[in-house]
Amino acid sequence: MRVDVVSIFxxxxxxLELSLIGKARQDGLLDLHVHDLRAFTTDRxxxxxxxxxxxxxxxxxxxxxxxxxxxxxxxxxPEGPGKPVLIVPSPAGERFTQALAYELAEEKHLAFxxxxxxxxxxxxxxxxxxxxxxxxxxxxxxxxNGGEVAVLAMVEAIGRLxxxxxxxxxxxxxESHSDGLLEYPVYTKPSVWREREVPPVLLSGxxxxxxxxxxxEQFRRTAERRPDLLEAFDAGKLPRAxxxxxxxxxYVVVNGRLQPRPARPEEQQD
Length: 270
Ligand code: ADE
Prior knowledge:
alpha/beta, 5-stranded parallel beta sheet, 31% helix, binds adenine
């Protein structure tokens, strides 16, 4: 996969030289290029921003340097059909999820446009549709100072899904969000640490029981921390053991979806 990132702070992307992503680059699995937006300016001051039309606080990124940068990237598209995908990190974008990471990991060429200040002149985003599939993407419902931190997160989440990047692909299967649930808790030696024991089932050697316990823990954690995920979970074809576990946690399956079970009379508050 080829990835191009444009930023006025290219040094911000230096961590992409480290760890698994850095290794993926060295191994030729990820062809990542970071570009300085100012290299595409033509004035003496290398200006990238100006005041907003209509007034208001802050500055807006100028269209022309972006158009120059993005045109040069579009020309670098590896052979193949379709357009490269241009991701514009923005708190006003669609949410970045594991599902979107999997989708983007299938692409041959991704470009990321890191905005700063109040954002990029909207006409660039419109114009970019001629050369790219454009997707404004948000990391979450909070505001960062610019797109760089969001790009670090997205490139790591996408890059680790590329074939060969993570040594044991099975670890991708069992992690949080891979099946719409949070991951079960994990433990390692010693079996007793500061008087705290590892759950005995994990020492039993009974693989069926262990799998069942882990599944139950996934449901328990998800119910406690992310009930929104449980309500979006496809519960259409759950095995009986899963349904029982969910019932214990106060959920019932209605039309293939999980719903909090109405309180039993003895549980009513008043
Ligand atoms: N830029 C500023 N805030 C952002 C966010 N929440 N997600 C992605 N890019 C951003």
